[in-house]
Specification:
single chain; about 425 residues; mainly alpha; Growth Hormone, Chain: A; 2 domains; about 80% helix; globular
């Protein structure tokens, strides 16, 4: 270990809480934005087209922010990037809170997306590099629990301010700004990653370790990193289509394809909130154990079966409950949580946030593309739409199953300190 940080005290759980709040803010931004745009629609006179553009700006901002932030985190360190991103989030959220016109809203939405997207991969690497082999999966899984907390908190907050018009939208965005300000203060207490400092020091001194030598984006597409990188790209991009559809269009599908009234459709998700928390806690418990791939296989099967429920039995209140319960197992053990753990463990220090950011970005772009045509596909045939989701989930999980059957226990943290003897073009 480099002497650069030998006297510094790293607090893994404190780092996990403060850095993991990136996931809370990401969820808060997405949930709050939709409600706020409806409230601004009457107050400012936004058209449906303008709301669509602003929402698209947020989504694209998150995607491109993840790519940019991931690369900058590997080049210049975790700490400067996650500090700048919090400042950007605070400024853009404040701009949205006091926006009086569409141009301000769309620019601020893009910047909010860039800030939250750029923060995610850097924060995850900060957590994983502060952890040990015994608790890395648990601490990364905790960030997913904070993401769920962001959804819950902002869902209740949105309901409380729904009748306040423009003031309600301001409260939603000010909530994001205040939380980001508190997170920024907390992050000032977190030092730069020891692992990153050591890799940078070795690289500057010409020491040929894996973590110092493997720093080019091209390295993700060659040698021993190509297979896990492409597998994680495919796995998360495809499985996230179902997760995003459920979150974005769950009520829409029940109302328009299942004949369920809107009030019932919106309330059906409430019982799943505590169950989702249980699932996240359960994942944290097994994330560092040898059992996690077994749980992944069970989750993968449940993911596919949950979509097939709609294919064979149609869309109704009953099938939504059954599919939701089965799908909860899939989302807990064969979705974003395990993707984050695998990504942090499969790549060396100077490629870790680059890989994580790219995987997140590609998945967001895939989800945005499907979202634009989802209403049309559902109108054509709800059963065919869910068959499509079942197939893409099966493909995504199948890719991960094949690759991580042998790579699940590989941990780059244990091997990246070795001398780099592999040819660069391998």
């Amino acid at each position: 270990m480099s002497q650069l940080a030998s006297d510094r005290r790293v607090r893994p759980w404190w780092t996990a809480v403060v850095s993991g709040m990136a996931s809370y803010i990401d969820a808060a931004a997405i949930v709050s934005f939709g409600t706020a745009m409806v409230l601004y629609q009457a107050a400012i006179g936004l058209t449906p087209g303008e709301i669509g553009l602003a929402s698209g700006g947020l989504t694209l901002g998150i995607a491109f922010g993840a790519i940019i932030g991931g690369r900058l985190g590997d080049r210049f360190g975790r700490r400067p990037v996650f500090t700048v991103t919090m400042v950007l989030i605070i400024a853009s959220a404040m701009a949205l809170a006091f926006a009086g016109s569409f141009p301000v809203i769309v620019i601020a939405a893009l910047l909010l997306g860039l800030g939250t997207g750029a923060d995610l991969p850097v924060s995850l690497s900060t957590i994983s590099e502060a952890a040990s082999d015994d608790n890395r999966g648990k601490l990364i899984g905790f960030s997913h629990l904070l993401w769920a907390a962001g959804i819950i908190a902002c869902s209740f907050l949105s309901e409380g301010v729904a009748s306040l018009g423009a003031l309600g939208a301001q409260i939603l965005f000010l909530h994001i700004a205040v939380v980001a300000a508190l997170v920024l203060v907390g992050r000032l207490t977190i030092p730069e990653s020891d692992t990153w400092l050591t890799a940078r020091d070795e690289r500057r001194r010409g020491i040929k370790t894996v973590r110092a030598d493997r720093a080019s984006v091209k390295d993700l597409l060659r040698g021993s990193y190509k297979t896990p990188f492409l597998a994680l790209l495919g796995f998360y991009a495809l499985t996230n289509l179902a997760a995003n559809t459920g979150g974005q269009f769950g009520s829409y599908l029940l109302v328009n394809a299942g004949g369920v009234d809107l009030q019932t459709a919106t309330l059906i998700g409430l019982p799943f909130i505590p169950l989702g928390i249980v699932g996240a806690l359960w994942f944290m418990k097994i994330a560092d154990s040898s059992k996690r791939f077994t749980y992944f296989k069970i989750g993968a099967i449940c993911w596919v079966v949950s979509q097939l429920v709609y294919v064979f039995f149609g869309i109704s209140l009953t099938t939504a409950i059954v599919a939701g319960l089965i799908g909860l197992v899939g989302s807990s053990f064969a979705s974003e949580g395990i993707m984050k753990v695998w990504t942090q463990e499969q790549f060396p220090t100077l490629l870790r946030t680059t890989a994580q950011g790219t995987i997140i970005a590609v998945a967001r772009l895939f989800a945005a593309a499907l979202a634009t045509v989802t209403p049309l596909l559902v109108a054509f045939s709800p059963s065919m739409f869910y068959l499509f989701l079942a197939i893409v989930i099966a493909i995504g999980c199948g890719i991960a199953w094949k690759v991580f059957l042998t790579r699940d226990r590989h941990d780059e943290f244990d091997t990246e300190t070795q001398k780099d003897l592999e040819p660069v073009g391998a």
